[in-house]
Amino acid sequence: MLRIEHLNRTYPGGIQALNDVCLDIPNGMFGLLGPNGAGKSTLMRTLATLQEPDSGSIHLDELDVLADPQSLRRQLGYLPQEFGAYPRTSPQVMLEHIAALKGIPAGERRALVEYLLSRTNLWEVRKQSIDTFSGGMRQRFGIAQALIGNPKLIIVDEPTAGLDPVERRRFQNLLTQFSDNQVILLSTHIVDDVADLCPRMAIMAAGRVLVHGEPEQLTNALTGKIWSQQINHDELAALRSSARVLSTRNRGGKLEARLFSDTVPDGATTASPTLEDVYLCALGDAGIDIGLDQ
Amino acid sequence: MSALIEVIRFECRYQLRSPLFIIVASIFFLMTFLGMASDAVQIGGNDSALNLNSNFAIIQTQLVFSIIGMFPAIAFVANAITRDQEVRTAEVLFASGVRPKPFVLGRFIGGTVFAMLTGLAALAGTLLGTLAPWLDQARIGAFALSPYVFTLLVLIIPNTFFVCATFFTLAALFRSMAAAYAAALAFIVAYGVMSAFSGPEDLWWAVYADPFGGTAFGEAFRYATVYERNFELPHVFGENALLANRAIWSTVGLICLAVTAWRYRFALSGPGRKKKQERDKTPHTAARFSGGVPRPGLMDQFLSQLRMDYRGVLRSAPFYVLLAMGMLNVTAVIFGSTDQPYDTNSYPVTGLMLRAIEGGFLFFVLMVVVYYAGELVYRERSFRVADILDATPYANGIIVAAKIVALWSIIATLLAVVMLTGIVIQLSLGFTEVQPLLYLQGLFVVNGFFFALLAVLAVFVTVLAGDRWIGMLGMILVFLGLSAAESFGFEHNLYLFSTPDTMYSDMNGYGHFIKPWAWFTLYWAVFCVILILVSHLLFPRGRVFTLHERLKQARDRTTVGVRVSMGLAVIALIATGSWIFYNTNVLNEYRVEDDIESRQAEYEKKYRHYLGQPLPQADSVEATVDIYPDERRLRSTGTVVLRNTQDKPINAFALAVNPLLDIEKLEVAGAAITESDKRLGHYLLTFTQPLPTGATTIANYAFEWRNPGFVNSRPNNRVVENGTFVDSTEILPVTGYDPGRELQNNNKRREHDLPPVVRMAKLGDPNWLGESQFGVSQRTEFKVTISTSPDQTAIAPGYLRKEWQANGRRFFEYAMDAPIWPFFSFMSARYEVRRDHWNDVALEVYHHPAHAWNVDVMMSSARKSLDYFSREFSPYQYKQFRIIEFPRYATFAQSFPNTIPFSEAIGFISDVRDKKDINLTFYVTAHEMAHQWWGHQVAGAAMQGETVIVETLAQYSALMVMEKEYGADYMRRFIKFEMDRYLASRGGELIEELPLLLTENQPYLHYRKGSVVMYALRNEIGEANLNRALKNFLNRFAFKGPPFPTAQDLLNDIRACAPARSQALVTDLFERITLYDLEITDAEVAANDGKQQTTITIEASKFTADGKGVETPTPLDQWVDIALLPEADPDTHDNVLPKPLVLSRHRLVTGKNEVHITSITRPVRVVVDPYLKLIDRNPDNNIKTL
Q1: B601-B607-B611 Cα angle (round to 5)
Q2: A contacts of B290 (beta carbons < 8 Å)
Q3: Secondary structure (3-state) at B769
Q4: Which member of A87, B96, B389, B524 has the greatest number of CB atoms within 10 A?
Q5: Mean pLDDT confidence for B316-344
Q6: Sheet architecture: strand order including B880-886
Q7: How far apart are CA B225 and CA B1177, in angstroms?
Q8: Residue B130 and residue B121: Cα distance in Å, rounded?
Q9: Which of B288, B311, B388 sits opposite A145 (nearest CB)?
């Protein structure tokens, strides 16, 4: 159980990346959803002991993370949003190195690395330079290294960004295999990642946690408030002035707008809420327009 | 076109905004400005009589900046082409619709313009520097714009264009800045290798091969005189290679650029070719691994990180480029250092290899250390693996530790490769006496330790800088700062991050250099411990945004262990520092360069008025010298009987004593010390009753030369553990004021408010006829008892009378049976002796046991010299001739009566096996032997031309012995070297060049020109006539005096033996500075009546030069040798001519001459002045192939 309390962080430029963030995260997969610049990566890096907050506290079970980061690192797997590799270095060599840094005894390293390589489908390319990897292979290498040392906390920051659908699916499958008794924190700006994987989630924007809970619960809470309406492109402005438009989608030369309203808007039909609606609602409530309109 | 202009404009805006241009341009401007306007900054160094703003100096400075400027130039252009990848905007740009050609050209032009502007800044700095009002106006010539325009057009623009174009191409090709920089390092090393080849007989293509034109400029200025260097510019369209060189390299640049512009395609760096995968099976079962929380092992983490770092370097291409360059560099410096005068070689003894490597390698290692410190320290960040690694539980210190040890491993790898290279070179030269342990000691310990410290400093600076490039700049600034401090007179190794220089001698090993080296190394090692601790504290982990956060990390890491280590290190630093300070500044006097000069100046200012005062002369010297090699201590006591040989009484006289001696006793009977200046080594003895004419008095002295502890720099290399060599001026009192201590360089003299050097007395000055060039007017009886440790042999001039052992010491008594000049040598070392004889003269060579190679040559040269000199000049005056080896701390041989101290660095290790080479050992031995005549039988009066009698005649004598041994053809090569060295030295003249007869102790005249002149004279008047003249001269003056002979007396004897037709040439040779320009413009041969009729057209002119090298044409009307040559023997050197078919003399006049010569055999080549009787700056066009 990871407990985050009143975390604050302001960067030298004055940007407040974390604003009183409080979250309780139980074992299992936890999705952190938010647009770019929401403060997700700052939170992830702070949890990964790569930077310190201005104030607040983090506890993993009994462990005070900020007071004793080294103890956390012993139980941590971290897949950063962006990472590279030493040039001309194979995943096997790199994983063995990380295993050594993580304190895996020399005698066990090779077997562990081989196990991880095969689990992550990298066995065939284990001697190839990581430089030459595709995005998906690279992310699978990333998760392999994060899993070294049987960590209690695994942090994966935007792991599916830029992957093609097949690779994304493959990666999601990989993640679901490891989620028994660990805290797995997955940050993403892709709603489907959370919808598909996470029993619990939070939505972050502008450094704040907007909502958190179980995706199903959050979705259900919107039942009866989400509407769909077919309009012409030139009617959008008018519609916006009369109703709260969450998103629009091209559909056969027309626009399908999804509206949020406690009452039935004129000409709208009822729609079943999705996690995306939850996300957009939360952002809208916080006054953030991420411009999903087309 | 508009796209091109747009790209250029964008590029210029970009460069203007980046700080690099402003920083580099200001640094360049400041460096050249201060280089000109301040003494503290030296670029190239200029201590001759040249003006500060001489054309030569302006061009040389810009040449230096062409090389330094390469690095910013690369930054401008390589950055211009790779920037988009590095900052990851490539996709945007490549998609933006700019076409490749305007893009490439625009970026190139933009970058190049800025590179040229930095060159222009350097030029402007020089120009403004010359206008600084505080400069020594005596050294500033009238301002002229032409050298600046010349330098800009011929040097800066072509060089910058070449550098920019080639490195732009490289960067475009590899799409990487680092590749361009690695190539630049390689280029610099290759450049250094090439500049090792610049002798007169070296590669003809070097002038073309140097892309910066340095060699071509050097060649164009090679024989330029002071005047020409000051005011004239090389002719771009003249005979030199400048134009061709500039054209070649500008074309190379253009081709590179064209290829890049034509071939460049927008593409992202990234996946290269994919390797074929080996298909093997997945592990069958999923291995199990430890559950729970792992316990990190510190050592495991460290070793793994070290392996990653070292492996990373080993797998990078630049490392192999550097390694190859290191090997090449070492090869070049090794061959450069076995290269001795006259293009001869020495044996590649390991000590010499070490010296060569040290000399050429330090800078290389420094570059490697700086480069790889930058590469390694922020490697995780630049390859973006830091986030992953920093989240693992590695212990904080291991990264910094791994980086340092990786850097050490790189250095060790380099050194190992260098060592192997050295050994391979030794073996390939057929030299098998390799000393592997000495390699290990010299490379890995004496040099390696310092490199290791350097690595720590580089890591520290890089960590502190927080960025690789800033770190590199930081290291450069650190070293510039340190060398600036040094030139400001801050010379103590306690703050210069340096260890004292060491010098290995085969005889004395590292000797007394090791102790200070060890202490300073320990001191800096302790300092480096502190640097390591601070680096550990400051090494950023994770994302650090502010200084505050960095300091917080540092605070968190300040554990008890760190505190204790830091405390201990500080204590150790203070302790070792104090001990060093006690040795260098308390036990010994700490003196910097400027102190030494000030003292020289002070001595001159205070005591010069004693020069020329009447002095009592030594009738006899009875000396006792006790040498304690282990303690490097020497005790010198004795008695001198002094006589007033003047025609009036002497009231007082000055004594000069080496200021480094402790004086226990200095007494002169009947006189009191009335001035005593221990610091400057001056004493004035005043007689209570003036010493009457003819009367004698006795001087008693007891001195001790101690070398307690160790010194910061300039250790006493004279009294050493094995190979002590001191002379009487160092350990005996010397009567009078010692003008030898005066500052000789007029620029330095002005700094110390001294008038220009007081010139030597004019030739024939009657006031100085009574003093010989030894500074005395009579010879002295000499006897010495010299003692040393029992395993060493001690030697002084004279014959061994007695040898005994007492009190665990070995004693020798030497005495000379006839008076000698009062200038003695005292030596002691562990020697092996070779004995031989010539008639009834005993020949002995005392040598280091490992240096037996050339003892036979010395013996042979000694026998042949004795043969020739005693037959042609006069009998040898001694019954013995000894050569005694001393360590390489000095590199000369010196002739004392029957005793020749001979440096281990010259003839002893010369490789004389190749008969085609000039035999340096044979030559030096003959020269020193000749001094037994020229110097010890007859010495000149103390005035102009004195060295003609001693040195020029010794050169001539040696030439004759060599000619008998090796043949006349061989001598042409020797003379050509002498000619080259004479002509090339004229531009470095400090005061003024004088005709040979008036030489004021100018080595390039009395040795080099002396050889040329005497050889020409011999060829002109014949050996018999010349030797008769010398015999007459000896008859008149040997063992006599005062008055002592002058060069004029010698010339008179020569003229008396020369035919009338040669008198004009004698005048040109001795009394004028005469130069000729002979050129065969055309030569044809036609068969006629079975005979070969050769018609030769010769363009001839003649000049006389003044002391600054300003030439005036004079009419030529002279008989000159012309030879027709057959096919050359392919086995001989180019400079050795075959025996001529016809050799005849022809009258040549100024202008065009046509000469007809008939021969039986068809000639292959014709040559005018084949035996180099005339001094011609371009002897190569004196020869023409038909």
Answers
A1: 110
A2: 104-105, 108, 150
A3: coil
A4: B524
A5: 73
A6: B832-838, B841-847, B880-886, B899-903
A7: 11
A8: 14
A9: B388
Note every long-range contact of B579-586, with CB atoms under 8 Å and residues 24 or more positions apart, other chains counting. B579/B519, B580/B494, B580/B519, B580/B520, B580/B523, B581/B494, B582/B709, B583/B516, B583/B519, B583/B708, B583/B709, B583/B710, B583/B711, B584/B492, B584/B494, B584/B516, B584/B709, B584/B710, B584/B711, B584/B712, B585/B712
β pairing state of A183-188 and A28-33: parallel
A18 contacts in B (CB within 8 Å)? none
The interface residues of chain B toward chain A in range 391-430, judged by CB-CB distance below 8 A, are 391-394
DSSP-assigned letters across all residues of B1009-1069: IHHHHHHHHHHHH-HHHHHHHHHHHHHHHTT--SSPP-HHHHHHHHHHHS-GGGHHHHIII
pLDDT tens sequence across B801-848: 999 999 999 999 999 999 999 999 999 999 999 999 999 999 999 999
Q: B681-691: per-residue pLDDT in tens?
A: 999 999 999 99
| DSSP code of residue B151 | I
A75 touches chain B (CB under 8 A): yes
Task: Give residue B800's pLDDT.
Answer: 97
Give the bridge partners for B639, in sequence order: B622, B700
**Confidence tier at B296 by pLDDT (50, 70, 90):** low
Query: Is B829 in a helix, a strand, or coil?
Result: strand
Edge-first strand listing for the sheet containing B339-340: B339-340, B344-346, B910-911
Q: Which of B278, B289, B314 to mutate to test the interface with A (most CBs of A within 10 A)?
A: B289
Nearest to B745 by CA among B224, B38, B45, B31: B45
**pLDDT tops 60 at residue B86:** no
Q: Which of B308, B274, B315, B289 is nearest to A124 (CA)?
A: B274
Nearest residue, CB atoms, A114 vs list B287, B301, B391: B287
Q: Is residue A247's pLDDT more than 90?
A: no
Listed residue (B475, B459, B474) closest to B402, CA to CA: B459
With CB atoms and an 8 Å threshold, state whether A98 touches B388: yes
Cα-flanking dihedrals φ and ψ of residue B847, to 5°?
-135, 160
Nearest to B412 by CA among B442, B440, B436, B444: B444
Q: Give mean pLDDT, residues B470-498.
A: 86
Q: Is the pTM of this model over 0.80?
A: yes
Chain B's closest residue to A109, CA to CA, is B289
Q: Which two tokens stand for residue A183?
A: 């805290």
In B264-411, the DSSP E strands lie at 339-340, 344-346
Q: What is the helix (H) or strand (E) element at residue B969, kind and residue range?
A: helix B968-985
Q: Inspect the interface and report whether the beta carbons of A86 and B275 lie closer than 8 Å.
A: no
Distances (CA, A) of B761 to B616, B758, B942, B1010: 21, 9, 7, 20
Beta strands in B644-731 (DSSP E): 650-656, 662-668, 671-677, 682-691, 696-705, 724-727
pLDDT above 70 for B85: no
Q: How many helices (H) and strands (E) does chain A have?
A: 10, 14
Q: Which residues of B touch A54 (CB under 8 A)?
A: none
Taking alpha carbons only, the member of B435, B437, B355, B502 closest to residue B850 is B435
What are the pLDDT digits (tens) for A102-145?
989 888 899 999 999 998 889 999 999 998 898 889 999 999 99
ipTM rounded to 2 decimals: 0.94
Residues in chain A with CB shorter than 8 Å from the CB of B378 are none
